[in-house]
Amino acid sequence: MALVYTAPGEIELLELPMPKPGADEVLIKVAWCGICGSEVESFVSGRRRKPPLIMGHEFSGIVADVGHGVSGFEVGERIVVNPLISCGECKLCMRSFENVCQQRKLLSMHRPGGYAEYVSVPRQCVFKLPSMLDLKLAALSEPLANAVHACRLARTNGFNSVVIIGAGTIGLLCLQVVKRFDGITVVVIDPVEQRREVAKSLGAEVAIDPNEVDVSGLVSDLTHGVGADVCFDAVGKSETRALSCKLLSPKGIAVWIGLHDADALIDGACIVTGEKRIQGSYAYTRGDFEAAIKLLCDEHVQVHGWVSEVPLREAREAFLSLAYGDLERIKVLINCSK
After folding, report:
1. Helix, strand, coil shares of the chain as percentages rounded to 5?
2. Tell me: the pLDDT tens digits for 252-306?
3. Short-list 58, 169, 71, CA closest to 119
4. For the chain, does the N or the C end have fewer beta carbons within 10 angstroms?
5. Distances (CA, A) of 203 to 118, 184, 197, 199, 261
6. Do 172 and 307 touch, CB atoms closer than 8 A?
7. C-alpha–C-alpha distance, residues 66 and 75, integer Å
């Protein structure tokens, strides 16, 4: 059984043949798979992913079988999947920049993903899980790796004051990674009250509604008129990109993670005269993914109050609810064994 994006605007729960692992592939019995905002966005907009397709790129599971040439994995082992498939041979991959490999492929975009009971993936995507990490929490390894990567890029500048635009999954994970460092003041911006409350419970000093508060004035007051050292845009709209730059201090860095829009309405003169930087952040490296697994093992990530679950047989309704604008549920994990 699998949740299949069958046509534009249509997603169905279907019975499909059991996949078989090819050479250098591992067959995974999927345990948990997260519904990512990028997949919902593709479904709504028709961009980036083309049906028919099994989506789902944030998943954990158990090894069910291995294909020819695979060693080091045994049936029954608990694993998590890194869905980014790089070529491993280009200059970028040789420099450990596999996340921007120009030949990269992604599970749930270029080949079937984890909204299914079983999926076959390349051996390079499979990571064994430490015994202390349960399969449900392990499914957050992929989105957490995105946050680890974004925060690592931001730290090249050093930071004491941070603004996070968007309290969805990536924004909340960036918040938790940032709060591991002492002495950092974090402002979270989101129009949804429930999300702001979750952000405050996870350590944000301030969580504000941009429709009700003068964001620029508040950030200026909190930073003694200087502006934020770092601003993460975890939304990716033209307006939020412009805001991320506006809120920065001179020499500050705006890290753009969200991919909602292609355009950015920024004040170029403000960037030049303040020597501000705009840093794109796409996915993660293998090292970031491993760091995310360690953070989960060390219990540095809290999920209470913002992660919910549904069985696979109810995943269609949950996905469509998110597609139709449900903002109350922040992160949904599909239990693919039910």
Report:
1. 30, 30, 40
2. 999 999 987 778 888 888 899 999 999 999 999 999 999 999 999 999 899 999 9
3. 58
4. C
5. 37, 10, 10, 7, 29
6. no
7. 8
Residues 122-177: tens digit of each pLDDT: 999 999 999 999 999 999 999 999 999 999 999 876 778 999 999 999 999 999 99
For residue 52, whether the previous peptide bond is cis, meaning omega lies within 30 degrees of 0, is yes
> Considering just the CA atoms, what is the radius of gyration of the chain in Å?
20
The fold adopted by the segment(s) 147-280 is Rossmann fold (3.40.50)
In this structure, the number of other CB atoms found within 10 A of the CB of residue 271 comes to 15
Are residues 159 and 184 in contact, defined by beta-carbon separation less than 8 angstroms?
Answer: yes
pLDDT by residue (tens digit) across 36-61? 999 999 999 888 899 999 999 999 99
Structure tokens, 41: 């966005």
> What pLDDT was estimated at residue 181?
85
Kindly state the average pLDDT of the residues 174-193.
94
What are 69-75's contacts with CB under 8 Å, separation 24+? 69/23, 69/24, 70/21, 70/24, 70/25, 70/26, 70/123, 73/26, 73/123, 73/126, 73/128
118 CA to centre of own chain: 22
pTM of the model: 0.96
Residue matched to tokens 């990716």: 236
Pairwise CA distance, residues 5 & 287, whole Å: 31
Phi, psi of 149 (to 5 degrees): -65, -45
User: Three-state DSSP class for 164?
Assistant: strand
Architecture per CATH, domain 2-140+303-335, reads as Alpha-Beta Complex (3.90)
Query: Where along the chain do its domains lie?
Result: 2-140+303-335, 147-280
